[in-house]
Amino acid sequence: MSNVAIFGMGNMGRTIAQGMKSLGHRLTLVDTDINALNKIEESGEKICITGDLASQVHSIVQGRDIVISSLPYHATETLAKACIDMSVPYCDLGGRVDVSANINRFAEENGFPFVFTDLGLAPGLVNILAEWGYDSLGGADSIKMMVGGLPDRAVKNPLKYMVTWSVDGLINEYRDACEVLTNGNIELVPGMEGLENVELDKVTGGFEAFYTSGGASHTIETMKSRGVSNCSYKTLRYSGHRDIVRFLIRECDLPDECLKKIFMNGCSVINANNSFRFSRRIKDIVIVKCQVKNGSTSWDKEILIKSDDMFSAMQRATGYSIAAAADLIARGDVTPSGKHLKYADIPFESFKRVLTYLGIEV
Q1: Which residue, among 100, 160, 158, has the nearest Cα to 124 in the 3D structure?
Q2: CATH of the domain at 184
Q3: 66-69 vs 90-92, strand pairing mode
Q4: Least C-beta-crowded within 10 Å: which of 26, 187, 245, 317?
Q5: Whether the Cβ atoms of residue 127 and residue 219 lie closer than 8 Å to each other
Q6: Which residues have a Cβ under 8 Å from the Cβ of 275 and sit 6 or more positions away?
Q7: Does the pLDDT at position 255 exceed 60?
Q8: What is the number of domains present in the chain?
Q9: What is the pLDDT of residues 4-46, one digit of tens each?
Q10: Strands (DSSP E) along 38-151, which ranges?
Q11: Which of 275, 290, 311 is where one domain is finished?
């Protein structure tokens, strides 16, 4: 039984805790909000941090088999550096390019490779699938990664969307530039470009995909170093979503606070007046699509993840993915191939087996 500390008991942290508990690990749960900790029943030791995180983190991580961060990006670097200082394996949900780069650089400088940033859904699960496809084909010319967190049917609001995770993170993904590997060269392209229509096997309806930032993580650089010509990450939405959001951001030049109100008041489950925006029958889904091509051979994987009685589809897809990888790391089943852990280091069949145990079919 491994000794696991999980920092951050928000929506994702609770899901990670449930996943790790189901896998038989002994948990220590850490947060700055005692109410968030009290919502979790029978999950081991609970520590409420008061005051400065940096002054307390070393004593908490000492002796752990792995530390998992579900903290906001501005706090992850402090936690990661403490783990590296004490040679404690560490992983996080990532998604913030500069913070992940700083953490990985610190791991390299200190010679401790058991550090894995960007290990949720996108980045995370979809990048592991890309490695699986690359390995299955013995190489690749092109790789397409796509992920969408959506309502399980088209809803009536003009954006055809339902908020299932951080609106701040969503807006950043739309606004920020995106790394894309094109004809062997890494390029920066604006978010929301690269629009294409997409057909899905497991869900009916019209879908589109377009570039957003963060989801590719270090897959772009890894594939370039291997000689792959084209590699990209795109977000999936119901058709028509991109044009409206692009208009609001580019042509209207709306500030983030205004965009946040649009998404929260128009696309969240409960609006500003505390009334339901959607029927209670509408649930969220997560679609993960990956296509790897090597010459005339194609490897295609499409995964549909649904909500259950405990968690939303977004929580399950994100929280259980990092839990599955952390489980393998804590048990000593992951061997670093470089100066920090990468998606290729995750043993695919073992990862698939753990996810299946947690109820996600890959």
Answers
A1: 100
A2: 3.30.360.10
A3: parallel
A4: 187
A5: yes
A6: none
A7: yes
A8: 2
A9: 999 999 989 999 999 999 999 999 999 999 999 988 876 789 9
A10: 45-48, 66-69, 90-92, 115-116, 142-151
A11: 311
Q: Within this chain, do residues 170 and 85 fall inside the same structural domain, yes or no?
A: no
Measured at the CA of 56, the angle between CA 123 and CA 336, to 5 degrees, comes to 40
- Provide the token pair at 130: 């890309």
**Where are the strands (E) in 101-162, listed by range?**
115-116, 142-151
E-assigned strands of 239-352?
Answer: 284-294, 297-306
3-state helix, strand, coil in the chain (%, to 5): 35, 25, 40
Mean pLDDT of 213-236: 95
Q: Are residues 192 and 260 in the same domain?
A: yes
Strands 196-198 and 207-211: antiparallel
Gap between the Cα atoms of 251 and 241, Å rounded: 15
Would 321 be classed as within a structural domain? no
Structural domain harbouring 18: 3-117
Crossing angle of helices 125-137 and 313-330, in 10° steps, is: 60
Q: Same domain for 157 and 247?
A: yes
- E runs forming strands in 75-139: 90-92, 115-116
Read off the amino acid at residue 12: M
**278: pLDDT strictly greater than 70:** no
pLDDT band at 275 (very low <50, low <70, confident <90, very high): very low
- Reported as a pLDDT band with limits 50, 70 and 90, residue 340 is very high
